[in-house]
Design brief:
Strand content: under 5%
Oligomer: single chain
Shape: globular
Number of strands: 0
Helix content: over 70%
Order of helices and strands: HHHHHHH
Number of helices: 7
Number of domains: 1
Length: about 180
């Protein structure tokens, strides 16, 4: 979380939507809002692509350990990829009005997962180990938590219903915790 926080802090103020100037012009407000949404969608797509890469590695490693484990990890990852795709597509669609562009960005962020599995097959078999994957998953998890709290949750609150966003986040955490208890 600290790494992505430092990256966010390092973005110059004029490029960071958290600090965009407001001159009160209605057309400018609409453009700024679309810019914020587009940035949220693109930042989310990048974060999810970074998140999906080690998921592909994890699925590959799980499948090499046990076919049943590989299938259960693959199914769990596939289920949680649905809201990830929505988190990428919705802000991009609302910023651009272009369904195809939203779909392609969501698809692109998801394709990092099979790429991670391919890299696992060819390059990372020598590095696989509990410590390596522990560091990798903690870094990716931290990035996703930061993105969720800094970008996604405020956007969901602004464009949706605040309590539904919080309840959805808590339900997601509960489901993930329950899946860890049941499947590990």
């Amino acid at each position: 979380m600290l790494l992505i926080g430092l990256i966010d802090y390092a973005i110059p103020d004029m490029m960071n939507p958290h600090t965009l100037p407001d001159n009160g012009d209605v057309d400018n407000e609409v453009l700024m809002e679309r810019s914020r949404l587009l940035r949220t969608g693109l930042f989310t797509a990048l974060a999810i692509a970074i998140h999906n890469f080690p998921e592909g590695l994890a699925t590959f490693i799980a499948a090499t350990e046990s076919t049943a484990l590989g299938i259960s990890v693959g199914v769990a990852i596939a289920i949680h990829n649905i809201p990830e795709g929505i988190a990428v597509a919705m802000p991009i669609y609302h910023a651009t009005g272009n369904k195809a562009k939203a779909l392609w960005y969501a698809l692109g962020s998801g394709l990092a997962e099979p790429l991670g599995a391919i890299v696992g097959i060819f390059l990372l078999q020598a590095f696989s180990g509990e410590l390596f994957f522990g560091f990798l998953f903690s870094a990716v998890g931290g990035i996703m938590v930061y993105i969720s709290l800094d970008e996604l949750l405020p956007s969901a609150e602004k464009y949706g219903k605040h309590h539904i966003s919080i309840i959805g986040m808590m339900m997601g955490m509960g489901i993930m915790a329950l899946s860890l208890i049941l499947f590990i």
